[in-house]
Structure to design on (432 residues):
């Protein structure tokens, strides 16, 4: 990369919020980039589905391509930004084509990296170009570069945190306003924190899980796992869970967690109940926070805005500066052949304390049925709360368990579904 020509041609594929913001940032910061790298940059091509869509800038028709693959036939590109955001289809085709053309690629696309990162990494190394994806995890938080470079000599044992700003905003706002999940979601959509049409990938944990898989690979020098692991979202969290947690001096957060247990990989995404004096319990709104445990560094905390065009563009620009400075790096920090396959921890063996909320008919003997069945499955009760609803003749029964095996809990919950006095599937939230 030291012999990179002085004028660097750039292509931006995808002109959504991120692509538009990036386009403006590059144009506004050309001089700053030149000062810091000694390279002049020039946007030679942009691509989007619709040239006539209203945008914050006027599109130069001379550099616009409706079909992104046409760019490779007509332009000499040095660095390509993929900002489409799909794991397959045109996103993958564009990145693959660019790498094979010996073009450096920068992307915020965590779905693409989580699914095809192994293949694309090998392709990039073969063609001696960079595949950079700092913006795929944590928005503007420099978490991936921190792991790859700043903490490269540390032995990391655990990484966890708030990885989805949409979910964190919804949970924070539910607690603050005492409003329902549905109403807060509508507000999040109106503010642009959640997609108006389909927020499913944020809410069901998929978004955070793609990020945790990328973090796992970098933290533990492993291949990206394809095995099914524990993934739960926040769709079943109700305002009463928020309120009960508050009574218990706890707060609910959706966490992504990856750790090594007996040298086995344990990845998971699910809501957690966290003590209010814990640092991560106090990260609110659209903020993200990531905590690493390593030796000799100890505990490291990184926090910042995890989503939005501004933080994402910031991370994308950090990647281009790295490339322009001549840093050819292995996409996952070390040679691919040095990255190992690792056994997956059996979720059935996971031991943890739990919050269980039952909605039941308010009648004698129901509580006894619940506690007896729990005892039969080796689940002991640490704390119990009953909240009657006299109008509906129902009650909420909340149980905090002592540490219990996951398989025992799941078997127990299935048994409860057969009981007519239990009105719906019990709500389960794990304690951190």
């Amino acid at each position: 990369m030291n012999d990179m020509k002085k004028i660097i041609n750039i292509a931006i594929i995808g002109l959504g919020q991120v692509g538009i913001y990036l386009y403006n940032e590059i144009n506004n910061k050309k001089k700053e980039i030149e000062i810091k790298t000694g390279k002049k940059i020039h946007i030679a091509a942009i691509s989007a589905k619709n040239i006539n869509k209203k945008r914050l800038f006027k599109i130069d028709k001379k550099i616009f391509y409706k079909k992104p693959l046409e760019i490779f036939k007509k332009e000499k590109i040095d660095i390509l930004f993929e900002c489409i955001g799909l794991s397959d289809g045109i996103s993958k085709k564009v990145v693959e084509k660019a790498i094979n053309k010996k073009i450096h690629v920068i992307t915020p696309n965590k779905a693409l990296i989580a699914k095809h990162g192994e293949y694309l990494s090998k392709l990039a190394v073969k063609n001696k170009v960079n595949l950079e994806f700092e913006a795929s995890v944590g928005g503007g938080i420099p978490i991936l570069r921190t792991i790859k470079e700043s903490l490269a000599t540390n032995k990391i044992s655990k990484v966890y945190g708030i990885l989805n700003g949409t979910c964190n905003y919804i949970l924070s706002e539910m607690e603050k306003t005492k409003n329902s999940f549905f109403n807060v979601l509508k507000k999040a959509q109106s503010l642009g924190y959640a997609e108006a049409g389909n927020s499913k990938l944020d809410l069901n944990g998929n978004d955070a899980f793609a990020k945790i898989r990328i973090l796992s690979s970098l933290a533990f020098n492993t291949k990206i796992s394809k095995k099914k692991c524990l993934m739960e979202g926040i769709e079943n969290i109700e305002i009463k869970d928020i309120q009960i947690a508050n009574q218990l001096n706890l707060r609910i957060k959706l966490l992504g967690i990856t750790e090594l247990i007996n040298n086995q990989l344990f990845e998971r995404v699910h809501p957690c109940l966290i003590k209010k004096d814990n640092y991560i319990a106090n990260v609110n709104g659209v903020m993200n926070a990531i905590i690493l445990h390593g030796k000799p560094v100890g505990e490291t905390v990184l926090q910042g805005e995890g989503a939005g065009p501004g933080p994402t563009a910031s991370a994308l620009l950090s990647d281009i500066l790295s490339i322009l400075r001549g840093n050819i790096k292995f996409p996952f920090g070390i040679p691919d052949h040095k990255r190992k396959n690792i056994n997956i921890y059996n979720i059935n063996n996971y031991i943890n304390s739990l919050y269980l909320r039952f909605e039941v008919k308010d009648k004698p003997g129901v509580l006894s049925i619940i506690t007896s069945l729990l005892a039969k499955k080796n689940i002991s009760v640490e704390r119990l709360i009953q909240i009657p609803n006299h109008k509906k003749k129902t009650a909420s029964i909340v149980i905090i368990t002592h540490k219990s095996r996951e398989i025992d809990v799941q078997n127990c919950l299935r048994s409860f579904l057969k009981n007519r006095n239990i009105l719906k599937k019990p709500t389960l939230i794990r304690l951190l």
